[in-house]
Amino acid sequence: MLLDKTVLERVNTFQHIEYPLEAIQLFRNISDNNLGVIRHLIQDCDIVRARAGQTVLDASSAGSRLYIVLSGALGVTMLNEDGNHLENTITQYLPGECVGEISVLDEEIHSATVSAIHDSLLLVIESSIVWQLIEESNGVARNLLQLLSFRIRAANAQIRSRKKVGEFYRQLSMVDGLTGLHNRAWLNQQLPSLIQAAHGGNQPLSIVMVDLDHFKRFNDTYGHLRGDDALQAAAKVLNSGLRPTDFAARYGGEEMLVILPETDLQAASIVAERLCQRLRSAPVFTESDKPLPHITGSFGVATLQEGEDFQKLLDRADSALYFAKQSGRNQVACAPALNNMN
Ligand SMILES: Nc1nc2c(ncn2[C@@H]2O[C@H](COP(=O)(O)OP(=O)(O)OP(=O)(O)O)[C@@H](O)[C@H]2O)c(=O)[nH]1
């Protein structure tokens, strides 16, 4: 016979089973007198059996019962922020613990799906009885408050860790997988802000556009994988030759961009010359550590002009790079300041 995932089998009422009330979290540290009142209130409450995999509480359904695990274990599946998809969490409810209390108290829908991890016996307390328990026993009210505080802390911790994971993935999406440099998405987001900050603070800012020379030939001769090695070697040269306040990003296929805040044209051209020299002498290692021929790059430097935007600055660096290529590659060219241009 197929198991009905929603209907839990009723096996008894609480008065017919031997279960110590003190083993139930909600009824801990309560005087004997009061325990008698509690036992009386819940004596007719159902005991149901949830088979492994069976749903006990359905996310998005209204809740009017509290479930106390007497044996077995329940597991919770939280709703994602979009309210549609489910993701597994590791939260488990073990004997003595209860689920469903928040929806009983606020009469809102459940925010999670709870299912049986193993075959479980559960005590079902209808919401009207829960309220009577609260009225009759300060101890139950206190235990419930403690439980809610615990739930709030656990939920906050989960939100914090999700935020951290979210930030991790956000950062990851801003990094180029091959070179480890910032990627184009990062550049599109950050360069305009850096430019705005430079204009606002009346500070110089320079960029250096770098393009590897005859890279197609390198790929064609040694293969695309060796080309990737060469790109990684070039990225390492850029990264290791900069100040902590500078940035290097992969702009396109074999094109990279260096951003030098608080750096004028003269200082930027010195940085570019240094990078150009280091690149031409950097070894390109393959996995077998057999060195490949050195690669070279052409460098175009441009310094931010008054009122200039992100695109115009990039265009001028690109023109300087083109000039470096036309002049024989493996060298640096600087874009003249705008008032020096025709
Ligand atoms: N191995 C590898 N090659 C890439 C990657 N991205 C782009 N390339 C290659 O880079 C080469 C760029 O070639 P071109 O634009 O013709 O320029 P070039 O051969 O470097 O010549 P110049 O720039 O004029 O010196 C192409 O062959 C691309 O396939 C990459 O991620 N890995």
From TrEMBL:
**What are the Cyclic nucleotide-binding domain coordinates in residue numbering?**
26-151
PROSITE patterns in alphabetical order: CNMP_BINDING_3 (PS50042), GGDEF (PS50887)
Q: What is its EC number?
A: 2.7.7.65
Recorded hits in SUPFAM superfamilies, A to Z, give:
cAMP-binding domain-like, Nucleotide cyclase
What InterPro entries does this protein map onto?
cNMP-bd_dom, cNMP-bd_dom_sf, Diguanylate_Cyclase, GGDEF_dom, Nucleotide_cyclase, Rev_trsase/Diguanyl_cyclase, RmlC-like_jellyroll
For this protein, the record's SMART domains field holds:
cNMP (SM00100), GGDEF (SM00267)
Catalysis: reaction(s): 2 GTP = 3',3'-c-di-GMP + 2 diphosphate
Domain GGDEF: from-to ranges: 203-337
What PANTHER family does this protein's entry cite? Answer: DIGUANYLATE CYCLASE DGCM-RELATED, REGULATORY COMPONENTS OF SENSORY TRANSDUCTION SYSTEM
Q: What is this protein called?
A: diguanylate cyclase
Q: What is the lineage of its organism?
A: Bacteria, Pseudomonadati, Pseudomonadota, Betaproteobacteria, Burkholderiales
